[in-house]
Amino acid sequence: MALPKIEEVRKLNDEELAEEILATKRKLFDLRFQQATRQLDNKTHLFKHTRHRMAQLLTVERERQLNINQPSSTTEEA
């Protein structure tokens, strides 16, 4: 499973972003619970993926709060 791309997160609208944040928090909680009860079985890489996804979601949410516009990759200088 590859790490998710930030471009995918930026395509979400505000409502979808909030739902995704809640779902990711829940997934991280479930992973911690499974690890504590020894049900995870050598899948600790899922922690990295989930934390990475959470960081992306929170970064995009904060960018939107601050109205930070990302420069477009196809800028033309005239």
TrEMBL record:
CDD domains: Ribosomal_L29_HIP. InterPro entries: Ribosomal_protein_uL29, Ribosomal_uL29, Ribosomal_uL29_sf. Gene3D superfamilies: 1.10.287.310. Keywords: Ribonucleoprotein, Ribosomal protein. GO terms for cellular component: cytosolic large ribosomal subunit. Belongs to the universal ribosomal protein uL29 family. This is Large ribosomal subunit protein uL29. It comes from Crocosphaera watsonii WH 8501.
